[in-house]
Amino acid sequence: MDTRIIHEKQDLTFLSWSKIRHSSGTAGSFLKAMSELGGTKVYYKLSDYDNVRGVVGHESVNELIVDRLLTVLGIEHLHYQLIHADILVDGKTLDTYVCVSENFRGSGEDKLAIDVCYERERRENESALDFCLRMGWGEYIWQMLVVDYLILNRDRHGANIEVLRNRKKRSIRLAPLFDHGLSLLCRCETEEAINSFDVMADQPVQCFVGSRSAKENLKLIPPDQLPKPVPLKESDRSVILEGLNDIISQNLQDKIWDMIWNRWCYYEDLCNSRRNG
Known about the structure:
Elements: E1 5-11, E2 18-21, E3 29-37, E4 40-45, E5 49-50, E6 54-55, H1 59-73, E7 81-89, E8 92-102, E9 110-113, H2 114-121, H3 128-134, H4 138-150, E10 155-156, E11 162-166, E12 171-174, H5 191-196, E13 206-207, H6 214-217, H7 237-240, H8 250-276
Parallel strand pairs: 1-7, 10-13
Antiparallel strand pairs: 2-3, 3-4, 4-8, 5-6, 7-8, 9-11, 11-12
């Protein structure tokens, strides 16, 4: 049993939630909270919330699914836990699943959004991608573009890539990949929407270093630098979707797996054709 899902309901009504509008400007909002346990900062995220309908999304579940996917692929990333809990929002008690993660900063590290770092330190006429390559972050960026294609991440803006600096040690690195809620079938709230969703459709995305097309962004990767994750297998479905039967519908699980698997097969074919071409 994956311990990253706590099915037994917890009391998290002590948390204070702040609302953050969708970066895409759509209706609804994300709610975030933070607590400090034993000197460790713990961050909580809620799926899409509407003050009339309550929790209407499943972005928190997406975080766990992508966490498991990246573990299978052997790609460094932030780990998440999914907790069944009572929370208090707008004076109402809600029964929902909350996404939880710990602070990824090391001791003495400060964080800075990559778009801010870029504006401060870029050279004249240097693109965001060229800036990242000059900083030695090419392998990270190529992996990120592949991941964001596989899950159709719509929200890789400049604040969702963080630069971590330790001035005393004079070190600089990028944070592990994080924040994958707005991916997969994140806007599908009904069975009809799930059934009609085209898992291979190239929907518009935000990408700080690339274009509005996750598929076209794969072309930015030089053929000899295409990432080679641990190959995904059809049997990995059971690992990636373990324990979700009482949280999201079987139909949604099936469609999410179809999306991941079909996009993985496309990426494998692309790698073979570009390396051999």
